[in-house]
Structures are given as C-alpha cells and as structure tokens.
Amino acid sequence: METSLRSIWIICRHTMNVWLRNRSLIVASLLPPIAFLIAGYFAAAAVSHSPVALVTLDHGTQGQLMAKIFHQSELFRIVDASPQQAQMLLKEIKVSAIITIPSNFTQRVSSNQTTVINFEINNLNLDFTNDIRRSVPTAITQFYQTKGSASPIKVTMKEQDLRHRDIELFQYEVVPILLLMILITGLVNTTVSTAREYESRTVKEILLAPVSDRDIALGKILAGFLIGFCSGMLEIAICLMLNWLTLPPWEYWPIALLIISLTALMAASAGLAVGVWVKKIQAAHALSTNTALPLFFLAGGVGVMAFEPQWLQNIAAFVPLTYANHALQMAVFYNSTNQLGRDLAVLGSVTLVAIVISVCVVKKSRSHFV
C-alpha cells in the first residue's frame, strides 16, 4: 500500500509539474470560465433593472409620493428628466420607457377621481417591455398601500417566500460558472496533458515502469482533481473578495466542498479516458472544450432548469452536472439539503464509472504500447 501511494503521488506530481510549465494550457483552461463570470456580471447588471426616465409634472404631495415609490421600488434604474429630455433619452435608446406623473395627479387623487400614469415603452426587447408592464402596476399598488385606511382602494400586500433569502440574478449564475471552471480545468487539462504524452511518446516512461495500471490512472486522476479543485477554490475566493458570493453557514460547507470535489474527480476521470482514447493534442483540446461548454448550458448554466422547456429538462436529467448544480445551489444559497441524496448518488455513481473506465483504457493502452 505504501509503495502504491508513493507511485500515485509521484505520477500526480509529475503531471502537475508538466501542467504548471505549460502556460498556454493554463490560460486556455482558466480563461473561458472567468470570461463567463465577467460577462455574466455585466449582463445581469444590464437586465436586472430596466432603465426608465421619470417625468414628474406634479409637485404636490401625492405626486411626490408616487415619484418616491418609483425610486424606492428597486424595479427600475430611474433617470429624472423633463418631458423633452425624456423623449431624447428614449429616442437615443438610453432608456427603455418614459413614466409620466401628470400635473393634476395630487388634485385628482385627493378628490378620489380617476387619474392616469402614462408610460411610453420602446418595445425593442420583449424582456424589458414585460418587466415595465408588470412593474408600473406594482408601484401603483404600493402607492395605494401607503395610504392605509384612507385609500379609496383597500390594498393589503402579503408575501410568503418559498426561500428564506433572495438571490440576485448574477449570484444565481455564479454556481454553474464555478462548476464550469472545475469541469473545464479538470477535463481539458487531464485530456490534453494525457494526449500530449502519447503524441510525444513520453508516456513510455510511465507505461514501462513497474507500476500497476491502477496506480498510473489514479495518479493522473489525482493531478486533474487537484487542478480542478484548486481552480474552483480560486473562483470562490475571487467572488468572495468582490462580494459576488456570500458564505453559507459552516454546517453546509462540507456539502459544498463534497460536491465540488466529486465534480473535479468526475472531470479528471473522464479527461483521462478521453486523452488516452484520442492520443492527439489538437483533437483532445477540441473534444474536451466542446464537451464542457454544452454540458454547462444543458445543466442550467444560464437559466432555471425547472422553468426550461420539458424536452430540455428531459435531456438535462442525463447530464451529471445538472445534479452538481442543484446540490451546490441548495447548499450555498438556500442552506438546504433538498434532494441531496439523489444528487450525491448520481455524481458518485458517474464518478466511480469514469474511474473504472479510465483504469481500463490505461490498461488496454499499456498492453498495446508494450
């Protein structure tokens, strides 16, 4: 056992040293997830709150109250403007809509008369348009709620959340991007480094050594696992420093680390099998990268899987990353173990199968080489 562990560690250390000397491979594996992270941040900032020009023509108490509610509703990015400025902003597509509080708003509301709040929408994008169509009535409802018993329309708002906390759109995307980084670094690096050894024939130093097939496979898998796991920890550190992610209670950290570890182990095991199979650097790089990205999208990388079309959900059910994504989101965001047993069973089973396949392909390759 001691000899076996020593052999595994030597092979692991050798593989990691080769990876650390290959700067282009490091950049190729780290760049896509970081690019997704940055793009997701700016995309979420652009769509989370609709840019709106607010024209307040009424300076009375009710008009100012309505304007204050629009500012405090957290539904818009408000730009206060005159009618002329608002039209110019809309024409230049700097705002998606103009909301106008009429000059007689206070007078008509005080006398319980019907009044209107006009909003003009540029329906260039249905997502922005529907957000505003829903948000303006919500703000008006909040206006009537603030008036209490004096309101001509009795409004009582009661919210009962299914989750104990609200998650920003970008924060929700951090977890699948984290798994993408682990998948790419573990899968791509193990696949490419293995294929490079076969293409350059340097693998003979390992295959001809008096080491078992299992130890060779486990040594390379361990290297890929450490690379993927450390990459995941790097992204978590970056997100924590930029306040893009908050730490869950300590009791959920073991679950999160277990999911990250299983994902990294699964990626490294699959990467070794693919690398031994293709044996060519270019093919290995193309195959591993073009596998990781579709899996990211299929597993709900840019949306909520439960709200996706049924046919896509049926496909995602066969993607192991779907279960890693669900378990990690439950632990980190909602401090929940909902369906954790199912998620761990799927990830553990797929990882075990990938390890067995890796050992088998190394054994077959070794017999052909010798």
Ends: how far apart?
25 Å
Shape: elongated
User: Mean pLDDT, nearest integer?
Assistant: 84
How large is the share of residues in beta strands?
Answer: 5-15%
**Biggest β-sheet: strands ordered side by side in the sheet:** 2-1-3-4
Number of strand segments: 4
Description:
The mean pLDDT is 84. Strand 1, helix 3 (61-72) and strand 2 (76-80) form a beta-alpha-beta unit. With 370 residues, the chain is mainly α. The longest helix is centred in the middle third of the chain and has 32 residues, at 169-200. The radius of gyration is 28 Å and the shape is elongated. The protein folds into two domains: 2-43 and 168-369, no CATH class; 49-150, abc type-2 transporter like domain (abc type-2 transporter like fold, 3-Layer(aba) Sandwich), CATH 3.40.1710. It is 68% helix and 6% strand. The chain has a four-stranded mixed β-sheet with strand order 2-1-3-4, sandwiched between helices. It has helices spanning 2-21, 23-47, 61-72, 83-91, 105-110, 126-146, 169-200, 204-207, 213-241, 253-278, 281-298, 310-316, 320-332, 340-369, and strands at 50-56, 76-80, 97-101, 118-121. It is built from 14 helices and four strands.
Tag the structure with descriptive keywords.
4-stranded mixed sheet, single chain, elongated, mainly alpha, 370 residues, 2 domains
